[in-house]
Amino acid sequence: MMDFKALPKIELHAHLSGSISRECLHDVWVEKKKRGETDLRDPLEEMPVGKFDYNLETFFPLFSKYIYALCNDLSSLIYTTNAVLKDFEADGVVYLELRTTPRAIPSANISKDIYVHTILTCISAFNTTSHSMKANLILSIDRRNDADTAMQVVDLALAHSTVGVDLCGDPAVGDISIFAPAFARARESGLKITLHFAEAPQSSTPAELWTLLGFKPDRIGHVINVPGDVKAEIIKRGLGLELCLSCNVHAKMITGSYGDHHFGWWRGTGCPIILSTDDVGVFGSSLSNEYALIAEHFGLDREEICTLARGAIDTIFGSEEDKQRLREMIWK
Ligand code: IMP
Ligand code: ZN
C-alpha cells in the first residue's frame, strides 16, 4: 500500500472522544488507578488492541458507559484533547475540524461552558505552537437531546465562536425534526452546519432526509442509504461529503468491504469528497491509512489522490486565510 503520511491532509469529521487512542486512555486509567479514583477496567482490556468490530449497538454504549466515565475530570479532558491533536498532526493532518458534544460533568464541577472552554483552550494553545497543523472546533448536538438542549449547543457555539455545529449520536433514536429551530438559529447567526446523514436504515427515511436537507447543511457525513431523489438534490447543491471508509466497513454500516464503499458512487458526481476517520480511537484507521485504502481499492494514482485532498479545501468551515494556507500547502 502507498503511504500518505507525508501528504498534507484535511480532516473534517473527527469526534473528539472517539479519536482518543487506546494507549492514551490507558495512560489516563493508570494515573486514576494510582490515585484510587477508578474501578473501571483497563482500556487495553476493555478495547483490546486490534479490536475494531464495533457496530451501532456496541459503539454508543462504549462512550456512555466507559469512555465518559474514564475521561470525567479536567486533567483527563486536557490530557486526552492534547493527545488527539498531536496524533492527527503526527499523521500529516495540516487542518483539523474536531467536533465534540458539550458534556457537563457535575462530579467534577464542570459545566458545558467549562467543558467547551477547556477544549478550546487546548486547541488555541496547540495552534500557537504547532507549525504544521491548525485546528478548529465544531459543537455537536446529540440526537437524544431535546430541543432546548440543542439550542443550548448553538448558544455555546456562538458564545465561544466555534466554526460550526453538527448533528450526531445514535441513529436509532430521536426525532430530528425538533432541531429545526436550533439549526435555523445556527444558520442565521453565521455558523456552518454539518449533519450525520443517512447513516443507518432507521435514520434514512425520506421524511428524515428531506427534513435534514431543510436545515441547509454545508456538509453531510456518511451519506450511505440515500434514495435517488435525495441523491439528485445533494448533487444539485454540491454538498461536501464526509466519507468514513473504515468506520463504515468495521461497523458493518455498508454491505461488503472497502471496494464496495459508496465512495465509488459519489466520486465523479461533482460533490467534494472529504475522506475522514470519524473515530480513529475506535476503528484504528488513521487518515493517511484511509487515503491508502482509497488508492488501493479504487485505483487512484498519486495525482488523483492529491486532487481529492485539495478538493476538501473549499468545504472547510475555517476562514479564507485558512483556505489560502491550505492551497499553498497541499500538493498539486
Ligand atoms: P464526543 O462528542 O467528543 O463526546 O465524541 C463521541 C460522541 O460522538 C459519541 O458519544 C457519539 O454521540 C458521537 N459519534 C461518534 N461517532 C459517531 C458516528 O459514527 N455516528 C453518530 N455519532 C457518532
Ligand atoms: Zn461521525
UniProtKB/TrEMBL annotation:
User: Which keywords describe this protein according to UniProt?
Assistant: Hydrolase, Metal-binding, Nucleotide metabolism, Zinc
**Protein's GO biological process:** adenosine catabolic process; inosine biosynthetic process; nucleotide metabolic process
Q: Which residues form the Adenosine deaminase domain?
A: 8-330
Cofactor(s), by name: Zn(2+)
| Keyword Chloroplast in annotation | no
Quickly give the catalysed reaction: N(6)-methyl-AMP + H2O + H(+) = IMP + methylamine
Family classification:
Belongs to the metallo-dependent hydrolases superfamily. Adenosine and AMP deaminases family.
- What is the recorded name of this protein? Adenosine deaminase-like protein
* Provenance organism: Lachnellula hyalina
